[in-house]
Amino acid sequence: MENRGLTHFDGNGTARMVAVTAGIMGAKRTSELIPKCHILPITNCRIWFEKDPERRELHCFCTVKVTGKTGVEMKALTGVSIALLTVYDMCKALDKTMEIGKIYLCHKAGGKSGEIWNQKEGSATKQTDVLS
Amino acid sequence: MENRGLTHFDGNGTARMVAVTAGIMGAKRTSELIPKCHILPITNCRIWFEKDPERRELHCFCTVKVTGKTGVEMKALTGVSIALLTVYDMCKALDKTMEIGKIYLCHKAGGKSGEIWNQKEGSATKQTDVLS
Amino acid sequence: MENRGLTHFDGNGTARMVAVTAGIMGAKRTSELIPKCHILPITNCRIWFEKDPERRELHCFCTVKVTGKTGVEMKALTGVSIALLTVYDMCKALDKTMEIGKIYLCHKAGGKSGEIWNQKEGSATKQTDVLS
Amino acid sequence: MENRGLTHFDGNGTARMVAVTAGIMGAKRTSELIPKCHILPITNCRIWFEKDPERRELHCFCTVKVTGKTGVEMKALTGVSIALLTVYDMCKALDKTMEIGKIYLCHKAGGKSGEIWNQKEGSATKQTDVLS
Amino acid sequence: MENRGLTHFDGNGTARMVAVTAGIMGAKRTSELIPKCHILPITNCRIWFEKDPERRELHCFCTVKVTGKTGVEMKALTGVSIALLTVYDMCKALDKTMEIGKIYLCHKAGGKSGEIWNQKEGSATKQTDVLS
Amino acid sequence: MENRGLTHFDGNGTARMVAVTAGIMGAKRTSELIPKCHILPITNCRIWFEKDPERRELHCFCTVKVTGKTGVEMKALTGVSIALLTVYDMCKALDKTMEIGKIYLCHKAGGKSGEIWNQKEGSATKQTDVLS
What we know:
The structure is a homohexamer.
Chain A: H1 4-11, H2 13-28, H3 30-33, E1 42-52, E2 57-66, H4 72-91, E3 99-104, E4 107-108, E5 116-117, E6 127-130
Antiparallel strand pairs in A: 1-2, 2-6, 3-6, 4-5
Helix pairs in contact in A: 1-4, 2-4
């Protein structure tokens, strides 16, 4: 599978920073986008990327802390989704076969459903593969 | 793999309609969410779901038509992403292991890059697997 | 008075669900729309409809709970307004004489102005007549 | 019926100007609020009020022009609704029995459904009674 | 320096009220506009103008109170900026040489950085000169 | 005058990229923020910074192209304002005496008011001094 888009993306940090910024802003707007989501004051939101050159994938992680008691995972999932859509947007001129996926919850603590770990890809937060 | 969330989701059409509404509204706001996306007047946006009970998956499709000339795929991808995040949100009380993925472009026509087909899942638009 | 619009609206639950979703999202955005409204975290928002076939009316109700101390009625009134505008939008191809009205406060509890009841239409929340 | 709220509202033009501004901004955001509404570039939006002291009512009018071809009435109706909600918000400390209503289409021209006149209250645009 | 724009602006209070409304609404949306800004519930926001006819300047002040603990100055600075952009917009037909500036923090109290005073223009809040 | 904030800002490109992204997103939302601004589809928006180490200033430039016919300068001015507020936000922990200013129109072409040049700071677009 060809990977021109992400190669370009990885070339300079500019695009990644745009995606991080868009993801953080998207996470803050989760309650505007998801109908049943509560308005929760986010106290901390961090998004970062890790490259997996062998599999030509880009992994995106997002951690969110809130002071409220429910729904924090939706903010992190939205942050990851918007960040990856931004990556897709900036690489789409070079590659039209990219995929965004698997977006899932890696770790959640402090909610009423107890601590949750999904060890799908071996990493401690939310994780997404692009171009798998 | 357990699938309590989506079973509940499929039980009545209510949740699906909420997700469709959220996805359409999300598609219309793409340019607010993705930094480099143009403001394009959407003339038509349609989102629908198809069940794959065997694989315990829910497929989401989105078609968008615009009068402008570029970037329509970002609106469809954003619509699918927001619709699936909404499904996730409404099912998350039952199942914390859901995955959103593979979000990709199935078909694009009329842009300057010519007609594009990605025959990954055999369907003529955008397609996404949840809980694969 | 003719009532083709609402008859269509009542035919299937789809349109009503779209209106409920739009109303909830509108209620959450009240502080963006009404200049002097505070940003209050909504802890609960519910919107529902009741038909009055005799008078060819559709009644919309909205209850909102917030953790903050002021202005909750504006969120409920905004939720009702947006929900009814959505109904209007979906029925307007069939009937251009619809009216949205009387939007008013039915019941408020817990604010600094004490408990308030407006028994105009006999129901314990906010209430609106369409097509009276 | 008591009318302390609107008397205060009419006393100075400040509150009315806030409502006009909020209504215009609301009309421009119609497509964000009403799920099926198109994004139409508004070329002109005007909102004004007329007092009816005898009936202790305040009438709100909104005219909107767009370059697109459909849905302009939803923008005017949304503009009126947000303007009246803003009036309500600024008067609610004085009067909890106010009503917003009858919001309806007075006149539409240039759409595919031909010219439309609803002569309910005798005025050539959208019209709304508060505190009837 | 010619000052047709602001003279017009000062002529009636209408334009000023529009700018105040826009500034308050902008201050409430700060966290949507500034990527690293927290969502803080504003408990109070006030914007006002003072004329300096000698220097043909218009000064804009904004005070904001929040219940959260950080970042309140960004809300006030955003409120001032949006209010002044609104003034500029309403006067730009008459004068294309206007300047927006010096926007700065005059006074901050209650944050973790202690009390702050910047006595640049002799006034106890935020202050901005237009058309200096 | 001390300049710890901007020194830090200039140290790596990260903060500048966040400000550029925020400014572009802000420019696209101008019509939501400025009451009388039209919704214009932006076809191109570029923001960049230039350092003036001698005067310890950071200059921000924004060029915007639209297909519509009016109001493009408001989008550029808003883009510059939001970008500079973002810089301020990221540097404010180090320096509380920063100033945002002089925001003004450098060059406009193609509008009904003819071509406009304001040669205040010698550069061909919008220009802003921080920390002068």
